[in-house]
């Protein structure tokens, strides 16, 4: 962490805690990240009323490098079944203690560099934006990103609403020449050459 600062946010008792030049990971690791700015908006009265944690969190200018080695794929666990969804969403918003105060999280100007050593495929995502916001029914998520696939443009747009009480996800995904095979292999530990064609179209999901 390069620098930490605390400043008064507004006349309603809010404070902004800012971390500058945050770096994660080690040299030659599979995934490293650099985040020029992380800002969290805190309100002391939330803590006193039992609603710990930040109301809003902003990650600005994050850069993520992902390398999938020929003999070692990266795997992320998002929960095996529908019963775990609430726990997963809660962890993304700070866990059980932070959920009551949480209002919105944003990732701005995100850059992603992906390399598959086994196949030689590469792609770069620029100026991606993602958000997760609390709603009266649960949560709303959004993602917009553009990619460069060996010089060819591609894009992804994702919108989703999650109703906590009904345990229902309603999502829409729009793709233009997107590297779906790489993303599927990355998140689900599938073979890296499962399919290599770029995918375009719209998909709806309601589960």
What features would you describe in this structure?
The protein is mainly beta. It is 11% helix and 52% strand. Strand 5, helix 2 (85-92) and strand 6 (104-116) form a beta-alpha-beta unit. The radius of gyration is 19 Å and the shape is globular. Residues 75-82 have low confidence and may be disordered.
Oligomer: single chain
Number of domains as seen in the coordinates? 1
By secondary-structure content and strand pairing, the structural class works out as mainly beta
* Helical coverage, percent range: 10-25%
Number of strands: 11
The largest sheet is:
11 strands, mixed
**Can you tell me the overall shape?**
globular
Distance between the termini: 40 Å
Overall average residue pLDDT: 76
Please give the radius of gyration in angstroms: 19 Å
How much β-strand is present in the residues? over 45%
Helical element count?
A: 3
Briefly say what this structure is:
Helices cover about 10% and strands about 50% of the residues.
Spell out the blueprint of helices and strands.
Elements: E1 3-8, E2 15-24, E3 31-42, H1 44-48, E4 56-60, E5 63-68, H2 85-92, E6 104-116, E7 122-134, E8 138-149, E9 152-163, E10 168-178, H3 180-188, E11 199-206
Parallel strand pairs: 4-6, 5-6
Antiparallel strand pairs: 1-2, 2-3, 3-4, 3-5, 6-7, 7-8, 8-9, 9-10, 10-11
Descriptive key words:
3 helices, 207 residues, mainly beta, single chain
């Amino acid at each position: 962490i390069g620098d930490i600062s605390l400043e008064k946010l507004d006349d309603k008792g809010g404070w902004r805690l800012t971390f500058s030049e945050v770096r994660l990971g080690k040299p030659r690791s599979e995934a490293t990240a650099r985040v020029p700015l992380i800002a969290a908006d805190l309100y002391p009265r939330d803590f006193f009323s039992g609603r710990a944690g930040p109301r809003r969190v902003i990650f600005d200018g994050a850069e993520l490098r992902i390398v999938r080695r020929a003999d070692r794929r990266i795997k992320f666990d998002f929960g095996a079944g529908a019963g775990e969804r609430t726990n997963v969403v809660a962890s993304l918003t700070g866990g059980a203690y932070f959920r009551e105060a949480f209002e919105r999280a944003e990732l701005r100007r995100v850059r992603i560099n992906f390399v598959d050593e086994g196949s030689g495929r590469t792609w770069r995502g620029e100026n991606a934006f993602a958000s997760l916001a609390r709603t009266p029914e649960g949560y709303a998520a959004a993602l917009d990103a553009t990619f460069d696939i060996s010089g060819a443009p591609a894009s992804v747009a994702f919108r989703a609403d999650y109703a906590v009480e009904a345990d229902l996800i309603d999502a829409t995904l729009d793709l233009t020449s997107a590297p779906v095979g790489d993303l599927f292999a990355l998140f689900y530990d599938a073979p890296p050459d499962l399919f290599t064609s770029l995918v375009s179209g719209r998909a709806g999901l309601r589960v």
